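Morning, I've got a small favour to ask if you have a moment. Here's the protein in full, and shout if anything looks odd to you:
***
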Amino acid sequence: MSSTNKKKKVTFDDIAKYTGFSKTTISRYFNSPDSLTLENQEIISNALISLDYKENKVARILANGRTEFIGIIVPNLENHYYSEMLNRILLTYEHFGYKFLVFIGNEQEESERQYINELLAYNIEGLIVLSFTLPSRELADLQIPVVTIEREDRYVSSVNTDNYMGGVQATSLLARHNCDILIHINSTATTPDLPSYGRIRGFLDICEEKQLEHRLIYADLSNIFEETQASLSNVLEELDTAYPGRKKGVFISGDTHANIFLNLLIRKYGSLPDDYLIIGFDDSPISREAVIPISTVGQQIDKMAYEAVSLLVDQMDERKKRRPVPLQEPIHKVVTPIMIRRETTERA
């Protein structure tokens, strides 16, 4: 005869007998814990530990429709900011216990709508959107909690960097280095309704306040490397032609693009010329790993990711209560950036 060491599966009936509660009460603990007193919740929780209860998640999903899944839509992963933000969001599983389903939008409206429909079919409990393709009005109509990060957010809750302060920090640092001209390079896609437009406003305000010679350049900073490289190559040629020998402080709206610009300079001159200072934005890994570490405005990406998931979980938990109180207005959280000085501005 063969024997087995498999442990008997603990059932709701076992938990009920152990605690003295009815099976109905045990079921309420899993499906509607807010309907129980905190004391009874604690008694059942301790019983689960003592009995070494292993939850059947599939059965629980079928019973209450809650999947513990959060959907995520990101524009692309070529930009190191998005890949690092996604990485940090996924790491919040250890704290909140929610799992994630991820789609890459690639700035295609119909594709993103299809992806969202796919996510809703999986009965996600909430959605985090980094892509800026679909308007927040449309996202607010999805009937599930939505939190956005660094995009237009009029009708939904959001977590953003204080982009204006970041623009002020970067521009002020370049000004302290006595640059002859300050240049800010941003994307042609950056419009006033986007949080990142604050970087432009911060740059312009400091330049005008201090009466500094400056120039704002819009470039094609797409998610296709070859197109972005060609666009920044044209910008470099334009700057070299217009300001030969003058000390140029270049603030670029994104570490990925700052690194491309840095590489173009090194390919052309063999090193970073003395008349160029460079500051990026994000503090994504590429800024630290670049051939010459890049000064950057740190977005505190880990904190932003945690705050976004926390804000979403609060809304999802509220919906599970017997008498949920829906948000009257979207909540907008703002994270303070930190100026990080590295070799592209702090050379000896």
User: Anything to note?
Assistant: Residues 1-5 have pLDDT under 50 and may be disordered. The radius of gyration is 25 Å.
